[in-house]
Amino acid sequence: MRDFLIEKLYECSKKPYQKYFKKNEPWDIDQASLLHYPEGSLGFGLGNFLNRNHFDIQEKLEDHDIIHVLTNTGISVYEEIGMQYYLLGNGKKSLYLFLVIASGTIFYPKRMHYFIQQYKRGKKALPFHYLDFSKMLFIPVQTIQQTFKI
Fold it and tell me: Does any domain span residue 123?
């Protein structure tokens, strides 16, 4: 039930967040094109992630799925919250991030150990949350992970 509630909150907040808070331009690419990038590249990794999870590219939210690829984070509700803890540890600060962390902490107090672990992982990595990943799609995932200690 709480997963359902959190997912509904996300669905209700996604459109206003895209429209009013995300100032970046949508990427001019589709999922099929991503699968034509070299194997092991960030673009190919994103295409595989989207395909494997039956997702489409969400305009202005492409970076979110890239973070999943780079951090090897799953898509369950508590893993999504954990990824926000990771990003907080990595230095990202946004109203949306704090709202997800606050609601996630309230709804998943038994996952606090996991959330703290993710925060520490983010602290150990060099800051990368601010990068323009649309210009990095040909770079191998492993190279980015090693460079930024992800």
Answer: yes
What are the residue ranges in the chain where pLDDT is below 70? 8-22
Q: Which of 88, 75, 46 is nearest to 63 (CA)?
A: 46
CA distance 114 to 108: 10
For residue 55, CA distances in Å to 41, 51, 58, 65, 98 come to 19, 6, 9, 10, 25
pTM: 0.87
DSSP state of 131: S
Q: Which domain holds residue 65?
A: 31-147
Model pLDDT, residue 3: 74
Q: How many domains does the chain have?
A: 1
**Tens-digit pLDDT profile for residues 74-95:** 999 999 999 999 999 999 998 8
* Residue 49 domain-assigned (yes or no): yes
**Measured between alpha carbons, how far is 119 from 123 in angstroms, rounded to an integer?**
6
Q: List pLDDT tens digits, range 98-115.
A: 989 999 999 999 999 999
What token pair was written down for 32? 């099929």
Torsion angles phi and psi, residue 14, rounded to 5 = -60, -50
**Rounded-to-integer distance, Cα 112 and Cα 96, Å:** 19
Query: Does residue 2 fall inside a structural domain?
Result: no
